[in-house]
Design goal:
- By secondary structure, the chain is mainly alpha-helical.
- Helix content is about 60%, strand content about 0%.
- It contains 15 helices and no strands.
- Helix 6 packs antiparallel against helix 7, helix 8 packs across helix 12 and helix 9 packs across helix 10.
- The longest helix has 29 residues.
- The radius of gyration is 29 Å and the shape is rod-shaped.
């Protein structure tokens, strides 16, 4: 998670260059530390935070020193600075840029030590926001990583970790009225996922193979039109499944006629082109369908990660709004996970031997191997 790095040995915190204006939580951290330095017994009122809850590394080191050292006698503390000196020495072991003058600044900026618990709650809230953002970023990055041998497995594991983070937030921050986030959702990422032609080839191969073997589509109810990257391909899949479920004959000509009835033959889409597209079969429908669904899972995971990131970047979004918004976003991915589990469960239907031999693992990085893909991508 993003945190301010420890100052260098010879740096004074008051003289550090400030490239970004401090966020409100920075002042809450200063106020809390000032309260604890001035009245150490206020530590008993502080709950829900740890040293790593602070956005500033040096502040976290100071909090750790305050927490770990025995509290001073109040009378003695009011008369000398021995306890403050001990806190500074302990904190400097981890943040050597800390100085006595900065501790004096912290004490000066806190005029309300009795508000220590409120400051701690502010710090806890921002730490929760940063933690959730880190999990959302990890989900999006994992879904985009084409080097992973099992990308869907890794992506769903990252989604599970994000869901556990959301559950932790829900346990620590109570619900309240008006819990829906008001942050506009970011536009979805590109429909294509960086392998445009490969994705289109796989969709063409599925359509052609399913036209040649329509009975296989009955076992593929886990694949929906929303999983396709191109509207025309989604419409043709709808035509195929509709014909199959009606028990109608299925071949390139009947699919073409169904496409005309559904208004798919728009300007720029020639009937001959569709007939050519539906003629080049390779492998099994199940295999190509799984490839398409895998892309949909990864694409949705990226979009979910970006949506939750957007929630966390809006400072007006409360912790419980983060919970509600995140759970709604994750629900979209959960629905796809259910369909993926149905698709990847082994069935009695075997694919042709040459397809199994040449095809990569189901959850492996996208790779088109069928020799006819280039011919039908005209």
């Amino acid at each position: 998670m993003p945190r301010t790095p420890a100052p260098d040995e010879d740096d004074d915190l008051d003289d550090l260059p400030d490239t970004h204006p401090p966020q409100p939580v920075y002042y809450a951290e200063q106020a809390l530390l000032g309260a604890l330095l001035l009245e150490p017994h206020r530590l008993a009122d502080v709950t829900g935070i740890e040293p790593n809850s602070f956005s500033n590394y040096a502040h976290g080191a100071l909090f750790a020193a305050i927490r770990d050292l025995p509290a001073p006698d109040p009378v003695q503390h009011a008369q000398d600075t021995s306890w403050l000196n001990a806190v500074l020495a302990a904190a400097r072991e981890h943040a050597r840029g800390l100085t006595a003058s900065y501790l004096h600044t912290l004490i000066q900026v806190c005029s309300w030590p009795r508000h220590a618990s409120a400051y701690a709650r502010m710090i806890e809230t921002e730490h929760a926001r940063r933690t959730l953002r880190a999990h959302a970023e990890r989900l999006a990055l994992t879904a985009r990583d084409v080097t992973l041998p099992q990308p869907v497995t890794a992506t769903l594991a990252a989604a599970d970790a994000l869901a556990r983070c959301v559950d932790d937030l829900a346990a620590r921050f109570p619900p309240h009225p008006g819990s829906l986030p008001r942050t506009p959702a970011p536009p979805p990422g590109d429909t294509h996922d960086g392998h445009d032609e490969e994705a289109l080839d796989e969709e063409r191969l599925l359509l052609a193979t399913a036209t040649a073997h329509p009975a296989e589509t009955e076992q593929m109810r886990w694949l929906t039109v929303h999983d396709f990257t191109q509207p025309l391909h989604a419409g043709l899949w709808q035509c195929l499944t509709a014909l199959t479920r009606r028990g109608a004959p299925v071949d390139p000509v009947t699919v073409l006629w169904e496409a005309q009835q559904r208004g798919l033959l728009t300007t720029g889409i020639e009937p001959a082109h569709l007939l050519d597209l539906l003629a080049g079969t390779a492998g099994s429908s199940q295999y190509w369908g799984e490839r398409i669904l895998q892309r949909a899972v990864l694409r949705t995971a990226r979009d979910v990660g970006h949506r939750i990131e957007a929630f966390t970047e809006d400072p007006a979004t409360t912790p419980y709004q983060l919970v509600v918004g995140s759970r709604r976003a994750l629900a979209d991915l959960h629905a796809l996970r259910t369909r993926w589990n149905h698709a990847s469960t082994p069935t009695l239907t075997a694919s042709p031997a040459h397809t199994r031999a040449s095809a990569p693992p189901r959850a492996g990085p996208p790779r088109t191997t069928a020799p006819s893909a280039s011919r039908i991508s005209r």
